[in-house]
Design a protein that fits this description.
The complex is a heterodimer of chains A (100) and B (494).
Chain A: H1 5-14, H2 21-38, H3 78-82, E1 88-89, E2 92-93
Antiparallel strand pairs in A: 1-2
Chain B: H1 9-18, H2 23-35, E1 43-46, H3 48-63, E2 75-79, H4 106-113, E3 117-122, H5 162-169, E4 175-180, H6 186-192, E5 195-198, E6 218-223, H7 226-236, E7 266-270, H8 280-295, E8 299-303, H9 311-326, H10 346-357, H11 360-373, H12 378-399, E9 405-409, H13 425-429, H14 436-440, E10 445-452, E11 458-465, H15 470-484
Helix pairs in contact in B: 2-3, 5-6, 7-15, 9-11, 9-12
The chains are: A mainly alpha (100), B alpha/beta (494).
Chain lengths: 100, 494
């Protein structure tokens, strides 16, 4: 499978990365080079093989159902959460208008 | 006190503990080396006051007869992928330029709790994506090593932990943290003549490490020798409920367990790693490593890892796929860069922000990842790659039924010049051909210096172990280290 400029433009739109026409054109042969190379995976016989989901066996834990059980990952820290926001407003994250 | 910067982790810890010198003297000596090495561009920010504050605390504890910690008085470099409270954390990206974490990563917090101090935040490939440290927004890191041909070509320190490798090999810090997704600790260690270990996936908490590919990312230490790596790894490891993939296992006493006696051990040599057109010096150093381990008492066994050639292509589907998902968080809303063109709406802001904030290699990998996860292609690429990953993991499991550790080269060549491979993404990716298989299988693996090639540049040997058997890896590394007697170091030119 290979990509053309329309496909690259579509992927870039899906990934929310603005690319100029020149950047899209430059990316086409780069991505095709990489995709052609990874396509050798198709020759591997994977009959009956499950896709890997966990590299080291581990059990999934649930934390205790307690509010703010861990101070670091708990709530009540609006100022810290907003400290790095580019445009905080009234204690919230500010974004451009989304509803007309 | 410049001779203090010649000391490694164990020697500093012991010297501070016995009062041979103070922690402040050590911090001052390393601060001076860091300040004098700006040319190498190993640090994105330096934090001499942090190093001094930590040292003062250790000296005060000693005066008060209190315990000093496993790293009491040892100043270290912190890869700028670890969130450090109050100190800018960028992942070497424009996207996170100016980002000041309000919290400390688990791994860095553990190191400070054991008495280590921070000399600064180390440069890296942007979002840890690269093998040469040429994708950093804050400029290339330059290796302190130069070829013996008299030319002054600037060489790559490896990547992505290139600031870490340069800083340790140039004696700017006795040890540094690294992270390894597909070789990012081992390959830079090999390029600069130092040691580095990636532990079993889950040993070190990922909490507070800027995420690249979460099923592969693992932190680990980089230091001048195997013992220093063992000491650092003990301090960095341990269960963390804040990381869902953290291993709930006790941390072994790796330093106390070090033993270079390989009698009764079987060392596997994978035939598939002996590739056509292999660099002659790398092949010779591998043979030398086999002879050293035999001399240490090990039995050498040829093994087969039949899916080796598919590891790298599988990695370049899985890692970009995970990256495209992880990096979706950079949207210009909650933290990091925002680029808001005039009259732009929300979607335009996302796209403009991500265009301005990500470098070319990061964009390339996000696009690849987005493509292989997109509707209609998911099974052909991503599911297939995860199936191949299962087969690669099985290859190792079968091999470890008969052998205790595996010996291989760390990288296919010694360090290359900056700019030599940066125009060709595929040529760059191929640099991790020996490192990636162990990453895909989540196995502990380390690189130790083996010697110099004909150009006078370091070569590394890689030891891969069973899951959870960091001790076996460290021990084989120590057996090599004892016999390699590697004392070469870059001549100071910076």
């Amino acid at each position: 499978m290979s990509v053309d400029t329309a496909t690259v433009a579509k992927i870039a739109a899906l990934a929310r990365i603005k690319l100029s026409q020149d950047e899209v054109s430059a990316m086409v042969p780069e991505l095709n080079g990489i995709l052609a190379w990874v396509e050798q995976l198709a020759e591997v016989d994977v009959t009956g093989v499950e896709p890997m989901t966990a590299v080291i066996e581990n059990h999934l834990r649930l934390r205790d159902d307690v509010v703010n059980a861990d101070v670091q990952t708990g709530g009540d820290k609006r100022e810290k959460v907003l400290a790095n926001a580019p445009a905080p407003e009234h204690g919230f994250f500010g974004v451009p208008k989304v509803i007309e | 006190m410049s001779e203090l910067t010649e000391l490694g982790v164990a020697a500093i810890r012991d010297g501070v503990s016995t009062g041979t010198f103070s922690a402040v003297e050590v911090a001052e000596a390393f601060n001076a080396n860091v300040a004098a090495a700006a040319t190498l561009n190993a640090f994105i920010v330096t934090t001499p006051d942090k190093a001094l504050d930590a040292a003062r605390a250790v000296d005060a504890n000693r005066a008060a007869g209190k315990p000093l910690g496993k790293l009491g008085g040892v100043p270290i470099g912190m890869k700028d992928l670890f969130a450090t409270a109050g100190v800018q954390t960028t992942a070497a990206s424009h996207m996170l330029e100016g980002f000041i974490p309000p919290y400390e990563s688990t791994v860095s917090g553990k190191l400070w709790a054991e008495g280590a101090g921070m000399l600064g935040k180390l440069n890296l490939d942007q979002f840890a994506m690269g093998s040469s440290n040429e994708t950093s927004y804050f400029g290339n890191v330059i290796s302190p090593w130069r070829r013996s041909d008299g030319g002054n070509a600037a060489l790559a320190p490896g990547g992505s932990s290139g600031g870490s490798s340069t800083a340790v090999s140039a004696r700017l810090c006795p040890a540094a943290t690294g992270t390894d997704t597909g070789g990012s600790i081992r390959q830079p260690a090999a390029f600069t003549g130092i040691s580095g270990i990636k532990p079993t996936y889950g040993r070190c908490s990922r909490w507070g490490i800027v995420a690249f590919a979460s099923s592969l990312d693992q932190a680990g230490p980089m230091a001048r020798d195997v013992t220093d790596c063992a000491i650092m790894l003990e301090a960095m490891s341990g269960f963390d409920p804040k990381d869902s993939t953290s291993l709930d296992l006790p941390v072994p006493a790796w330093e106390a367990g070090l033993n270079p006696d390989m009698r009764g051990k079987k060392v596997g040599v994978p035939v598939e790693y002996r590739m056509d057109g292999m660099d002659a010096d790398v092949a010779a150093s591998w043979e030398q490593g086999i002879a050293w381990l035999r001399d240490a008492g090990a039995t050498i066994v040829e093994i087969s890892l039949p899916h080796t050639k598919y590891a790298l292509p599988a990695y370049y589907i899985i890692a970009p796929a995970e990256a495209s998902s992880n990096l979706a968080r950079y949207d210009g809303v909650r933290y990091g860069l925002r680029d808001l063109p005039d009259n732009a709406g929300l979607q335009d802001m996302y796209a403009a922000t991500r265009a301005a904030g990500f470098g070319a290699e990061v964009k390339r990998r996000i696009l690849i990842g987005t493509y292989v996860l997109s509707a209609g292609f998911y099974d052909a690429y991503y599911t297939q790659a995860q199936k191949v990953r299962t087969l690669i993991s099985r290859d190792f499991a079968r091999a470890f039924e008969t052998v205790d550790v595996i010996l291989a080269p760390t990288a296919p060549t010694a360090a290359f010049a900056l700019g030599e491979k940066s125009a060709d993404p595929l040529a760059m990716y191929l640099n991790d051909v020996f490192a990636v298989p162990a990453s895909l299988a989540g196995l502990p693996a380390m690189s130790v210096p083996a010697g110099l090639n004909r150009e006078g540049l370091p070569l590394g040997l890689q030891v891969i172990g069973r899951p959870f058997d960091e001790q076996g890896v460290l021990n084989a590394g120590l057996a090599i280290e004892r016999r390699a007697g590697f004392t070469a170091r870059p001549e100071k030119w910076w």
